[in-house]
Specification:
heterodimer, A: mainly alpha, two-stranded antiparallel sheet, 72% helix, B: mainly alpha, 3-stranded antiparallel beta sheet, two-stranded antiparallel ribbon, 20 helices, 5 strands, globular
């Protein structure tokens, strides 16, 4: 049974599913989504089976398969997972079916067919599995770039009003990063050819070669830029709010939940083990970006009037925490960071989903267009609250464990950065609770009000809803809506509470939030050996204390 | 007593096939009755090119200098001859398409009739079709195949003219927008004549410096003087200018957008694919066989030209609103990428780097993709012929999902997205360049790729994410020839992207010059 090629099947099943969905005749939308759900559930099952087949205490890479692909380049179609990749596969397995159900009733814009949506979604799933399962740097790069195409079409064909702009920006940002990485990938190959006599892209072989520190820095930067754009760290982040806001909700969940994790995954899998000296030398600069991201993105999140943009900014802040945990070089912090990657996918995914449910009801993305929803839709508000609390890492939710691990693990080596990062927690509480308070509590207002002829405010709100402004321009509109809100008080708020389908989306996510909040140990057991191996590659002490602590203290 | 030079007819078989077909074509034009000419000409031209393709494939592994030392039949020559013959056959199929244009052909019935004259209007609706274009094109293909095998500068010059003259002519044969087409032909001819003159002058200087036009003799002479002779360096520079012009490398690219736009689209496809292959074949042979030992005299020059070409192609491509012009600038940028591969052939006499094989693979992949892209252009039409303005392509995916998907595939390949042939080619040439220490060049190339990706993406955005225009173009239903071309090019673009191993291997094994 252990010989079964789980990983290959996990890549092939959704790819074949995508082709099947795309090949369905026009008008079979119902079959298409059922097929999509079926395929994504099969992948979830495969992910679970893979986890069972994986031996946490065993070798670093397991379930490996390798077939020669392009012999002239020394490229193998090599797959394998360590604990870190495995938990990401689990995350994909969970998120995709949830996204499928959440998008069940989405209507395409224009005369497009939802078949294309399901097909691209499944293709994206296949590529995402591939990117985490690849153990050949070239193969990783191929999936890394190929992943852009389905996401590009998801945003561009099914997104919001500014979807063309967002799709192109997403593609170009990622492509620039990817191409810089390509230079580094080729450079790595050439270095390996000089060291080993024969060029290779195999991760295990590359890990063992000694690279000249100057070259290491260049190669590190090549990979780093690609991952920092993907993750995204602060100066490279501007594409995410646009893409996150314009993508359809399902796409947005996968975008921040999984796609962006490729960046942080890349730091752990490629930057640290392959370029240990460069990683150690450049870590302070990365930490500056990480902490700046935590604070800056949190401040920006507070200022957003568009809910999807707000959630996107919270993600950028969270990615700062993840980067902090990774570049603190302790097993504790990095384990926390990997756990954070999973938890962020669940918590922010849930937040995006619930925001999407709210937007589906009101038709507007602006915070100021909602108010007092909790009175009419307690379930929706409850799920919203849980998602928000998970996002701000309240104890008892999944994110708390990981954030705590990151901070406690980083403090011994990087006290200053860690202290600054904790300020981000306070800011997180602010942006989440303000969002929750404005939309769910307070007087009923905004687009969900029954149109009351005697109040002009409802009409204003509805007008905003028809053309949701994004960016800073929207702030003014939101403020006006807030001011006029009391005038609308006599009107009645009418909100449907969660439907059975939406409950089916939210319930498993809420369950995971709470389950991982109380019992994260199984995941930690999976992650920790892989992180310890990475830490030993990078030359940090796996026990949790960096041997360089005194030196680090001086810079 | 004059001895006839030794000629290996077997080694020349591909050339004989193609030139033979061209001569037969001329006879057909003269003697066959008009109503059977078209099918006969198409058949003759296809038999010639496919025969050339098959015979050159049979010659794989051949390494010899023949025809009294004037021709080198070696790996690169045979590989590129096969590429040119194959791409030429595909282009001829596009020429032969009769079901797209209501006038049954993309070529003017009688080129000598002044545009807009009563006779011209009369011919517009006449069922008569142009058939001289087939032997002309076959001659051009023969010239290109000779060009890549030329082992001395004079043969190279003759081949240059044999391939150029028919091209000047067929650029001016468009059935629609005739004046634009004629302007393109004149422009191409004038600038091409200049380039030929540069080449000829360079040839004379090199002959003056070394006393020979044979590439191997030039190599020895330049080695003995350590490449220092002023005449030799000047001659080299002029030769390079002449060849770069044909390869449409910036800053010698000024003709490219106009000619690509004005020429009939099948001819543009032919030029974009085959001329590029031929010109790069000659560049590689000239630089490495004749001047391989004085590499440092030309390396900085080519390095600079590569950067200029990539940047000019990518940046100016951004501002284009006509698809044919956009593809022209794309071709200029790709010429720059190809030059990175040329530089990656490696220092030293025999070239240790993988650049030669990589460049040849790139030429094949790029040629197939670009013919496919132009073939799609011939499908999208409005009342005046092809609708090549960008805005006319808005919402194409809604009108014809298949056409849009095929075009999107070609554009992604041109942008170099993994799992397409474009990526494999780029990877191969960039690897060769980095291997040779030219990593700054590769970084520039990658940034240029990112810029160029923007204009390819813009077309995809238009096709997929925009609402279709009310009076948009119609999508023609292609006849058998175009369908065949599209099937071959789509398959090749995907196969060379997903499982390129076999072809890369062939290119790599072919990558050794003789001489």
């Amino acid at each position: 049974m252990s010989d079964f090629p789980y990983l290959l099947t996990m890549i092939a099943v959704p790819a074949v599913g995508a082709a099947a969905v795309a090949a369905l005749p026009r008008g079979r939308e119902g079959t298409a989504r059922q097929l999509a759900l079926g395929v994504s559930l099969v992948v979830l099952l495969l992910a679970v089976l893979t986890t069972i087949a994986f031996d946490a205490g065993g070798e670093r890479f397991q379930l490996t398969t390798s077939v020669s692909w392009i012999p002239d380049f020394g490229v193998d179609f090599a797959l394998g997972v360590d604990g870190i990749a495995l938990v990401m596969l689990l995350l994909i397995g969970v998120l995709v079916p949830v996204v499928v159900v959440a998008s069940w009733r989405d209507e395409p814009t224009g005369r497009r067919s939802m078949r294309a949506f399901w097909a691209w979604l499944l293709l994206l799933e296949s590529m995402m599995v591939g990117v985490f399962a690849a153990t050949d740097v070239f193969l990783f790069y191929v999936f890394f770039e190929a992943m852009l195409v389905p996401m590009y079409f998801l945003i561009g064909s099914f997104g919001g009003p500014r979807r063309q702009y967002a799709a192109v920006k997403f593609f170009l940002y990622s492509l620039v990063g990817g191409l810089v990485m390509l230079a580094a990938v080729i450079g790595l190959y050439v270095v390996s050819a000089n060291e080993l006599g024969e060029g290779t892209f195999a991760f295990d072989a590359l890990r063992q070669i000694e690279i000249d520190p100057g070259v290491q820095k260049l190669l590190f930067l090549g990979f780093f830029v690609a991952f920092a754009i993907k993750a995204p760290l602060v100066p490279f982040h501007t594409w995410l709010p646009d893409s996150g806001a314009e993508a359809p909700i399902g796409g947005a969940v996968l975008l921040v939940g999984v796609l962006d994790k490729v960046g942080t995954f890349g730091f752990i899998r490629y930057c640290l083990p392959l370029f240990p000296d460069a990683s150690r030398d450049l870590a302070p600069y990365v930490l500056v970006l990480a902490v700046a991201g935590i604070l800056y993105a949190a401040l920006l999140a507070m200022g957003q009037s568009d809910m999807k943009r707000l959630v996107s900014y919270t993600s950028i802040a969270h990615f700062g925490f993840i980067a902090l945990g990774i570049f603190a070089f302790t097993t504790e912090a990095t384990t926390g960071a990997v756990l954070y990657m999973v938890n962020h996918g669940i918590a922010t995914g849930l937040l995006f989903l619930v925001v999407g449910m709210l937007i589906a009801r009101g038709g507007s993305r602006l915070v100021g267009d909602y108010g007092g929803v909790a009175t009419q839709a307690p379930l929706l508000a409850g799920v919203f609250l849980i998602a928000g609390l998970a996002s701000l890492a309240l104890p008892g939710t999944n994110s708390f464990v990981s954030e705590f691990l990151v901070l406690i693990g980083s403090f011994p080596t990087r006290p200053v950065f860690t202290v600054l990062a904790t300020v981000g927690i306070v800011l997180a509480a602010l942006y989440v609770l303000l969002l929750y308070q404005r939309t769910m509590h307070g007087p009923p207002r905004g687009v969900l009000l029954e149109p009351a002829p005697e109040t002009p405010a409802g009409a204003t709100g509805a007008g905003d809803g028809a053309t949701p402004a994004t960016g800073s321009g929207g702030g003014a509109t939101a403020a006006t809506a807030t001011l006029e809100a009391p005038a609308a008080a006599p009107a009645r708020l009418r909100v449907r509470d969660l439907s059975r389908r939406e409950l089916a989306v939210a319930a498993p996510m809420v369950a995971i939030v709470i389950a991982l909040g109380f019992y994260p140990q199984p995941l930690i057991d999976l992650i920790e050996p892989a992180v310890a191996a990475t830490m030993s590659d990078v030359g940090a002490d796996p026990a949790g204390v960096s041997p360089q602590a005194p030196v680090e203290g001086t810079d | 007593m004059i001895e006839a030079p030794a000629i290996s007819l077997a080694a020349l078989a591909p050339l004989l096939f193609v030139f033979g077909a061209a001569c037969v074509g001329v006879l057909v034009e003269a003697f066959a009755p008009r109503d059977v000419r078209h099918p006969v000409q198409v058949a003759v031209a296809l038999v010639g090119t496919i025969g050339g393709l098959v015979t050159s494939l049979l010659l794989a592994g051949e390494r010899q200098v023949t025809a009294g030392g004037a021709l080198a039949v070696d790996g690169p020559a045979v590989f590129l001859q096969a590429t040119i013959a194959g791409l030429g056959a595909l282009s001829l199929l596009l020429f032969a398409e009769r079901s797209l244009d209501p006038a049954r052909s993309a070529f003017v019935a009688a080129a000598a009739v002044p545009a807009g004259s009563p006779r011209d209007r009369e011919l517009m609706t006449a069922p008569r079709v142009q058939t001289e274009v087939y032997p002309l094109t076959t001659f051009a293909i023969g010239g290109m195949m000779l060009f890549v095998a030329a082992n001395d500068l004079l043969v190279m010059f003759v081949a240059l003219e044999v391939l150029s003259l028919p091209l000047y002519l067929i650029s001016g044969l468009a059935r629609r927008r005739r004046l634009l087409s004629q302007e393109a032909a004149v422009k191409y001819f004038l600038l091409g004549a200049f380039a030929s003159a540069f080449f000829l002058y360079g040839l004379a200087l090199v002959y003056g410096a070394t006393g020979s036009i044979r590439l191997s003799v030039i190599r020895e002479a330049s080695a003995s003087e350590a490449g220092g002779g002023v005449l030799l360096v000047l001659g080299l520079a002029l030769l390079v200018v002449g060849l770069m012009f044909k390869a449409s490398v910036a800053p010698f690219h000024a003709w490219t957008p106009d000619v690509y736009q004005g020429a009939p689209t099948p001819v543009t496809a032919f030029m974009a694919a085959c001329t590029k292959v031929a010109a790069f074949g000659a560049i590689l042979r000239l630089l490495y066989v004749a001047f391989g030992t004085s590499e440092w005299t030309w390396r900085p020059l080519v390095y600079g030209i590569a950067i200029v070409s990539m940047v000019v192609g990518a940046v100016l491509g951004l501002t284009q609103t006509d698809l044919k012009r956009m593809l022209a600038y794309s071709s200029i940028a790709h010429a720059g990428f190809l030059l990175t591969g040329v530089l990656g052939y490696g220092s030293g006499a025999d070239g240790t780097g993988s650049g030669l094989g990589a460049t040849m693979f790139y030429l094949l992949a790029y040629g197939l993709t670009t013919i496919g892209a132009f073939a799609v252009l011939t499908l999208v039409r409005d009342g005046d012929g092809e609708a090549t303005h960008l805005s006319q392509w808005a919402g194409l995916a809604r009108r014809s999902p298949l056409t849009a998907a095929v075009m999107a595939l070609f554009l992604l390949a041109l942008a170099g997205i993994p799992l397409t042939s474009g990526f494999t080619g780029k990877f191969a040439v960039f690897r060769a360049a980095i291997d040779d220490g030219a990593w700054p060049l590769v970084v520039v190339a990658l940034l240029a790729s990112a810029v160029a990706a923007f204009f390819y993406l813009r077309v995809i955005v238009l096709m997929y994410f925009s609402e279709p225009a009310v009076d948009g173009p119609t999508i023609g239903v292609p006849g058998l020839p175009t369908t065949l071309v599209l099937a071959v090019t789509v398959t090749a673009t995907v196969v060379l992207g997903v499982v390129p191993g076999a072809v890369l291997d062939i290119a790599e094994r072919a990558a050794r010059f003789v001489g």
